[in-house]
Amino acid sequence: MWRGAAVRVLRGGGAGSPRAASGEAAAQLRRRLESELEDIRGAGTWKSERVIASRQGPHLRLAGGGAGAYGAAGRALGLFPRCDARASLSLPAGILNFCANNYLGLSSHPEVIRAAVEALEKFGAGLSSVRFICGTQSIHKDLEEKIARFHQREDAILYASCFDANAGIFEALLTPEDAVLSDELNHASIIDGIRLCKANKYRYKHMDMQDLEAKLQDAQKHRLRLVATDGAFSMDGDIAPLREICQLAQKYDALVFIDECHATGFLGPNGRGTDELLGVMDKVTIINSTLGKALGGAAGGYTTGPKPLIDLLRQRSRPYLFSNSLPPAVVGCASKALDLLLESNAIAQSMAAKTQRFRSKMTAAGFTISGKDHPICPVMLGDARLAAVMAEDMLNRGIYVIGFSYPVVPKGKARIRVQISAVHSDEDIDRCVEAFTEVGRKHGALP
Ligand code: PLP
């Protein structure tokens, strides 16, 4: 009996082959999941993962034979997964990458990699522990000190990701006596973090200061008010009106929280972020950000702000308390990235110059680029099909960009999002603009 069951479970393979759970409940679950997956495909919102065989950088090699055959590369990029007719077409040898958050090009910087290797050798693969039991090393404390210094705040606390930092702050800080006021387009992790807390919740219209003021007036009845906003919004490349937000916060005695994932390291004269760019470093109380984008791109996130807040998070914030410490190699990467930025703002300035080059050349070519001065450059096309077809045709020309349409962005606002990095050369930028111009003309986006 037992042997029979085991044989059924192992059907179709030996050691290492997947085992399907048996029983009616498991079969029912499988049917339900398959139907849900079919719905996602049917809705056209299926997300394919691209398989990259090289380091992150402006030039990529793709898995499956790399850059040669369209069939392998196209499938690796999730295009036409079932369409063999395209297998005979070919892609250019090198893929020029314009869709990573590698804003400063530090993901594959030799010094960042060396720092990771050194940390790995000296401090090991990982801590096998949460921070407060047996998981804090000198490099974790050093990195927290460096982050606080970089942002000119009192203290900082590390998390496994910024998603965790956002998931862990609101519940630890706010009670049913308090209120949180959140921009309607804030990142999913802020929305989830706010869901977890028991404060009174207000959602104001995207960057609408009149609406925020009305909500702040209503929230006066609560003990404490916290305004929460992304510093830079990743779909539109637009920057929160922090000066006005801080003025309102002052008027209505509120605190300001910003998520700086798409700003830390490169916005503002010294790359400190949106608060530096808009001259309100002393008005923003709490900053959450990531180590997984401009700061080396490995992983990790943090909160930086007043020391008692950081002390409280170490006692109360659940993603911090109940999740493993950041691995030393990851800490090494971020720490070196910050050293490079504390030394000089040359990398950030180089990225800003390339952003300017792309935005001005694309505008001159007749495209509308959303946002202002930000390396997220959404090429606005409106029509979802046009965005998909153009992104595909850009890839045929060896330029890797991604089209976004509803429900990721509002209906009628489909776009191709281009992200500029300090390690793109001027020639890379020009090649991208030329390809957009050709493809735009071909598909009627340009006259
Ligand atoms: N906040 C914003 C605005 C983001 O764009 C992201 C990542 O996409 C996150 C938070 C989450 O950051 P992490 O990747 O460190 O979890």
Q: How would you sum up the major sheet?
A: 7 strands, mixed
Determine the number of helices (DSSP H or I, runs of at least 4 residues).
17
Low-confidence stretches: 1-12, 65-89
How would you state the average pLDDT, rounded?
91
In percent, how helical is the residue content? 40-55%
Distance between the termini: 73 Å
Q: What strand order characterises the main sheet?
A: 3-11-10-9-6-4-5
Radius of gyration of CA atoms, rounded to a whole number: 24 Å
The small molecules bound here are: pyridoxal-5'-phosphate
| Beta-strand percentage range | 5-15%
What is the count of β-strands?
Answer: 16
Structural class of the secondary structure composition?
A: alpha/beta
The geometry reads as: globular
Structural write-up:
This protein is α/β, with parallel strands linked by helices and 447 residues long. Helices cover 43% and strands 15% of the residues. The protein is built from 17 helices and 16 strands. The chain has helices at residues 2-9, 24-42, 70-76, 110-123, 131-134, 138-151, 162-173, 188-196, 209-218, 242-251, 274-277, 307-316, 318-321, 328-343, 346-365, 384-396, 426-442, and strands spanning 59-60, 95-97, 155-159, 179-183, 200-204, 225-230, 232-233, 238-239, 255-259, 286-290, 301-305, 368-369, 376-382, 399-400, 402-404, 414-419. Strands 3-11-10-9-6-4-5 form a 7-stranded mixed β-sheet, sandwiched between helices. A 4-stranded antiparallel β-sheet has the order 12-13-16-15, with helices on one face. Strands 1-2-14 form a 3-stranded mixed β-sheet. Strand 12 and strand 13 form a beta hairpin. Helix 7 packs parallel to helix 8 (188-196), helix 7 (162-173) packs across helix 12 (307-316) and helix 15 packs parallel to helix 17 (426-442). It is globular. The protein starts with a helix and ends in a 5-residue tail after the last helix. Pyridoxal-5'-phosphate (PLP) binds next to helix 7. The site of pyridoxal-5'-phosphate (PLP) has 14 residues, from helix 7.
